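Supplementary Methods. Inverse-folding protocol.

Structures were first reduced to a discrete structure-token string of length 334. This string, shown here, constituted the complete conditioning input.
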């Protein structure tokens, strides 16, 4: 059942071979031989069977995926996972030939990627035949889950590798966000960094036809890095240690200049997750400097224009000598 046989011989020494229909796997030997022992005739080894497997890796350019035991009802309490992988120049087109799953209790989950952490294309149930779906990459992951009671006949799916007409999903950047979800030729995606990080590379990528005659992004994806030092002029902001949220390297001296208009009130600093030494340099109208060295702190504020030991404050220059751990510094105008 669910296969075919080649060979009609039934005499001792005759052999026949078996093969399965697409989507089924052969259980047993594909070739068996008729043997005679005294007055008894039998096949050795025993004839094989063709079954629909519960999950597996599928790598051909086209093929079929069946629910276990198809076309008979699938077993209870089954967790079956399939990974479809085709050549990197292609995407995957998946069509539903038949579909019947117990509603609300049994599900077929389909993901746009190599595992269940990828984008969920859909969760399918009931007996309504879903529309054809297509991946954005050369991977598609299917997860079938059945409960312990009612079973339906299951599903019969056909997949085909389809030449890419769009760029692959570029993904997101760590410590940043992405705008744009269209990857067709001519489409653009733009990346932005979270507060305190600087963009390294180009912020906008465009999907173009590459030298390989395949769609590809015209630039490498950027990254968002926490710099060692910087110049800050906004009314509020965030200062991060280098490589935050990971540990910074030893022996760095990072200078962060924060310039605030003198018409505003207090400049308030709040340190989180900090273990460091602090050196504050106070600028004055006559360019003289007042120093406070090796001062450990978790919260401090100074009013621009105020008198500090006989000097008028214009700005603050904060120098952090990195000793251990990581830190976040938030500043704002009050």
């Amino acid at each position: 059942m669910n296969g075919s046989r080649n060979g009609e011989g039934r005499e001792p020494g005759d052999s026949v071979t078996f093969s399965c229909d697409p989507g089924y796997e052969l259980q047993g030997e594909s070739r068996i031989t008729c043997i005679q022992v005294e007055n008894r005739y039998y096949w050795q080894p025993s004839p094989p069977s063709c079954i629909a497997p519960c999950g597996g890796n599928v790598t051909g350019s086209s093929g079929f995926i069946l629910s276990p035991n198809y076309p008979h009802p699938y077993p209870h309490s089954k967790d079956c996972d399939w990974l479809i992988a085709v050549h990197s120049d292609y995407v995957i087109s998946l069509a539903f030939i038949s579909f019947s799953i117990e509603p609300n209790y049994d599900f077929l989950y389909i993901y746009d990627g190599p595992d269940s952490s990828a984008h969920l294309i859909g969760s399918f149930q009931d007996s309504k035949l879903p529309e054809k779906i297509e991946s954005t990459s050369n991977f598609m992951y299917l997860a079938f889950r059945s409960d312990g009671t009612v079973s339906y006949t299951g599903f019969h799916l056909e997949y085909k590798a389809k030449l890419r007409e769009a760029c692959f999903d570029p993904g997101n950047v760590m410590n940043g966000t992405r705008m744009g979800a269209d990857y067709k030729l001519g489409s653009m995606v733009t990346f932005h960094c979270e507060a305190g990080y600087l963009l390294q590379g180009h912020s906008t990528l465009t999907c173009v036809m590459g030298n390989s005659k395949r769609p590809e992004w015209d630039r490498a994806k950027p990254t968002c890095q926490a710099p060692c030092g910087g110049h800050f002029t906004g009314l509020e902001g965030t200062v991060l240690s280098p490589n935050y949220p990971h540990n910074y390297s030893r022996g760095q001296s990072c200078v962060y200049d924060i310039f605030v208009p003198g018409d505003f009130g207090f400049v308030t600093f709040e340190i989180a997750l900090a273990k460091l030494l602090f050196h504050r340099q106070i600028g004055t109208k006559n360019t003289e400097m007042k120093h406070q060295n090796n001062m450990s702190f978790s919260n401090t504020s100074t009013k621009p224009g105020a008198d500090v030991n006989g000097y008028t404050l214009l700005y603050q220059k904060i120098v952090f000598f990195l000793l251990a751990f990581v830190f976040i510094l938030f500043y704002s105008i009050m």
